[in-house]
Amino acid sequence: MPGIDKLPIEETLEDSPQTRSLLGVFEEDAAAISNYVNQLFQAMHRVYDAQNELSAATHLTSKLLKEYEKQHFPLGGDDEIMSSTLQQFAKVIDELSSCHAVLSTQLADAMMFPITQFKERDLKEILTLKEVFQIASNDHDAAITRYSRLSKRRENEKIKAEVTEDVYTSRKKQHQTMMHYFCALNTLQYKKKIAVLEPLLGYMQAQISFFKMGSENLTEQLEEFLTNIGTSVQNVRREMECEIENMQQTIEDLEVASDPLYLPDPDPTKFPVHRNLTRKAGYLNARNKTGLVSSSWERQFYFTQGGNLMSQARGDVAGGLVMDIDNCSVMAVDCEDRRYCFQITSFDGKKSSILQAESKKDYEEWICTINNISKQIYLSENPEEIAARVNQSALEAVTPSPSFQQRHESMRPTVQSRPPTARTSSTGSLGSESAALSALSLDSLVAPDTPIQFDIISPVSEDLPGQAKSSGQSGRRTNPFGETGGSKSETEDSILHQLFIVRFLGSMEVKSDESPDVVYETMRQILAARAIHNIFRMTESHLLVTCDCLKLIDPQTQVTRLRFPLPNVVLYATHQENKRLFGFVLRTSGGRADSRQTSICYIFESNNEGEKICDSVGLAKQIAFHAELDRKASEKQKEMERVKEKQQKELTKQKQIEKDLEEQSRLIAASNRSNPSSGEGQFVVLSSSQSEDSDLGEDGKKKRESET
Where does the sequence pass through the membrane (predicted)? Predict the structure, then answer.
């Protein structure tokens, strides 16, 4: 390196203008160094902050990759290959995060510390010495000025001595301060090179160490893993491109095929009306009355589900029941100034709805479909064939009928002859429809080819297998909090009464009742079957938990729909994630003909009370268990008391016999002494009557003694 320029410390006392001029040059150089070092410090601090941010972001990335398998994605959340791949990436990125953390520490020690020390200590020292030197120089100039103003004529020795002392002190202070200031400026010429080179050296050494650690982590195995992942990404990209091409082709084909359907009322010659439908879905406008003569129309999605007409607003998850269309009447009506309107009226005439179709084709198909459903054609094996037979009547139904009252009167006799269990059979058919579905997803926990029952079969129409129905039990109204009438409630003696609002989802037979997985699998299959078959209707009931049984009670009539004995409830659990779902397994016997025990799993939905219901059932079983133990202990205690009492009676009887024998012996001895000749005969007589005395009471004994 070239030589370092210096300030002459020897000339500080002389304080010549040349020295002051050279000092100004050094001060300008110190100011330039300070400005440059501040900029360099800011740049290095940005590097350090960026490295810290990179280290934190890398660590966060690794953490998020580890949490991928814990995320609940609605689609493709169970991809094990993806999860394992991301776990491997998380491991590698975690190692890189550690390397970045080490690099941040090294940058803080080797780069930021030296330049910070130079900026905060050395440069501030120069500024401080400059201020002190300036003050000392000003004080010296002021002292010299006062000394120069001393008068020759009126010279005071005391004033002269004071001024002289001030000059001495200020000059000494200026000299010393100037020497230290010059020394600091000379030293700064060396420190500025160190302050610039040392942080750069530390930065490069930290980067070299970081790259060495990175090369050690990037092994051949990792390179092979990255190569495989790159190949997989390319394969996925090719599949995506093929899928995009297929979707584009599908879109083009659909656009060509659907062009005639864009018209609200397509040509009936190209799109004929299907009159043998038993299912129909589409958007309809429903009329809602807003006043005596005013009304509004609301567009909703309507669909048929079995014998029900359902509606679902856009954005809703499930549909709601609009009307039961079994044996209903449907007719075309003229409504205001709207076209394609028809009216559906329930059988009893208490509920009606006016709907508007979008086109004439939909209008006629809706009327034909509802006509077919009203005749319960959907319950037959071949609904389309039977619907074709009644096609003529469906065509007549398109035209307006004279009046609903006439149609209602003409259909009344047929309805009166309708069996009371017809509705149960219509809903019960849903279980047979879902048998094919459940057969696709059953495993070892559920019996094969098991139908799913979606509705509650009341004990009035069908008894639950393995349950004996007592006389007068069916149809009797039950107060869940205990009856106060003349008849005593069967749950009145129970110390536990807890009532919950539940909705029955379905039940099915299961093969095992030992693991909660049975309940979880049954929940999954029933919910899947409901979703596939668009079954949204659920029967709401009150579940009463007592120490004897579980009861499903009709909330309106208070009639017990089903009764489950508590000892037969062998398993109960709530859903692991959706706490509104819970279920229990009921173990029942097949009856007299079939003694095989079967297990049926019942699934319910509650108002976020699944865990509470399970806790209540568990508490009821504990109370029943302890009550059974107390009953057995009481019976055992009574049996022991009876045995003890019997032993006491035997002991008392034995003592009485011994006492009678002693009394007889005494009497015989006394009789022999009074009449020795007749002693033997008397002994025989008394001996023969010994057995009789043992059976006599106290009065008999006294009478016998008097006779003797």
Answer: none
Q: How far apart are CA 654 and CA 1, in angstroms?
A: 133
Does the global pTM surpass 0.90?
no
- Burial environment of residue 154 by CB neighbours within 10 A (0 to 12, 13 to 18, 19 or more): exposed
Coil, strand or helix: which one is 472? coil
Handedness of CA 370, 375, 379, 382 (dihedral sign): negative
Annotate 447-474 with b (16+ C-beta within 10 A) or e (fewer): eeebbbbbbbbbbbeeebebbeeeeeeb
330 within 8 A of 343, measured Cβ to Cβ: yes
Residues facing 297 on adjacent strands: 287
DSSP letters, 116-156, are: HHIIIIIHHHHHHHHHHHHHHHHHHHHHHHHHHT--SSS--
Q: What is the pLDDT of residues 624-637, one digit of tens each?
A: 888 888 888 888 88
Q: What is the largest CA-CA distance in the chain?
A: 191
Read off φ and ψ for residue 85, nearest 5 degrees: -65, -45
Q: What six digits make up the tokens of 357?
A: 């179709």
Tally of residues, the chain = 708
Q: Are β-strands 549-553 and 539-545 bridged in parallel, bridged antiparallel, or unpaired?
A: antiparallel
How far apart (Å, rounded) are the C-alpha atoms in residues 305 and 211? 67
Whether the per-residue pLDDT at 154 is higher than 70: the answer is no
Nearest to 438 by CA among 546, 521, 331, 349: 521
CA separation, residue 28 to residues 22, 35, 42, 478 (Å):
10, 11, 21, 103
By the 8 A CB rule, do 585 and 573 touch?
no
Distance CA 150, CA 159 (A): 8
Mean pLDDT, the chain, integer: 78
Q: Answer yes or no: are the C-beta atoms of 397 and 275 closer than 8 Å.
A: no
Q: Which has the closest alpha carbon to 707: 692, 432, 498?
A: 692
Number of Cβ within a 10 Å radius of residue 700: 12
User: Cα angle at 255 between 254 and 261, to 5 degrees?
Assistant: 90
Q: What is the DSSP letter of 206?
A: H
What tens digit of pLDDT does each residue of 480-535 get?
A: 444 334 444 444 556 778 888 888 888 988 888 888 888 888 888 888 777 677 66
Bridge partners, 309 (sequence order):
304, 323
Task: Region of 206 please: left (phi>0), alpha (psi -120 to 50) or beta.
Answer: alpha
Rounded to 5 degrees, what are φ and ψ at 268? -65, -20
3-state secondary structure of 387: helix
- Tens of pLDDT, residue by residue over 426-468, are 333 333 333 333 333 445 677 656 788 887 765 433 344 344 3
Using an 8 Å Cβ cutoff, are 455 and 430 in contact? yes
Residue 304: beta bridge partners? 309
Phi, psi of 17 (to 5 degrees): -60, -35
Residue 582 structure tokens: 């819970």
**What single string gives the DSSP state of each residue in 523-568?**
HHHHHHHHHHHT----EEEEEEE-SSEEEEE-TTT-BEEEEEEGGG
Neighbour count for residue 190 (Cβ, 10 Å): 11
Quote the CA–CA distance of 513 and 585 in Å, as a whole number. Answer: 7
Do the beta carbons of residue 312 and residue 318 sit within 8 Å?
Answer: yes
Q: For residue 384, how many other CB atoms are within 10 A of its CB?
A: 13
Which has the closest alpha carbon to 565: 592, 541, 546?
546
